[in-house]
Amino acid sequence: MIRRAVSVLGELLVTAGVLTLLFVVWQLYWTDLTSGRAQAATVSSLEQRWERTTTPAPTSTAPVADPPVDAVGVPPVGQPFAILHVPRFAADYSVPIVEGTGTEELKDGIGHYTQSVMPGQIGNFAIAGHRVTYGKPFNQIAELQDGDAVVVETATQWLTYRVRSHEIVRPQQVSVIAPVPDQPGATPTQAWLTMTACHPMHSARQRYVVHAQLESVRNRADGPPSSLAAPAGSAG
């Protein structure tokens, strides 16, 4: 009886181990594959739609106060409305930005904190992404260097931000996405972009945060900005 019980227990443990391994494979690899494909399809769909509706307008070569938000205004939660390009990550890095930072939204791309401003507006355009699983769009966030370009593409504009600082904080330190990063209550006078991701890798114990400042705004009809060129030593 004891021998049989030990045998059954052993089989159960082996089964549990196999199921755990399968879950890890699904979580780390399968979700990357499926989400990556879905996000690429979203990027393609957005760009095709924008190409059909883009009209020429004057080009701006410097940050402007509150550049107009696209005609769609603030999108509903879950809707993709912009594309993020980070040349440091790869020359062809293009990931959709969707409204909201819930579990479902972060499966579909990079999430926009709904309490933060829209791209290019004065204040802090704050976004979040996974470092592992679901396409892992911010897997290389710690490799960003000061001065690196972070480019946001919308239906009407290309907005180039430049990395200014990095920090690692507790998840409760929400001041990093305040209108003036790390200065809650301060009145913003500049346009910022803040990227957040879990830290360290495979853990949610902390947050890795990168702050970037708006450098220039270019009309979409004028073509991609030179800031999309891959920096020396990058994966691109």
Report the sheet with the most strands, covering strand number, pairing sense and barrel closure: 8 strands, mixed, barrel
Helix fraction by DSSP (H/I, runs of at least 4): 10-25%
| Sequence stretches where pLDDT stays below 50 over 5 or more residues | 12-26, 57-61, 64-72
CATH topology: Sortase, Chain: A
Rg, rounded, reads 21 Å
Oligomer: single chain
Q: What global shape is seen?
A: globular
Shape-level CATH architecture: Beta Barrel
**CATH homologous superfamily name?**
Sortase
Element pattern in H and E: HEEHEEEEEE
Count of discrete structural domains: 1
Number of helices: 2
Strand order of the largest sheet: 1-2-3-4-7-8-6-5
Beta-strand proportion:
25-35%
Mean pLDDT: 85
- End-to-end span in angstroms? 63 Å
The CATH C-level name is: Mainly Beta
What class would the helix/strand composition place it in?
A: alpha+beta
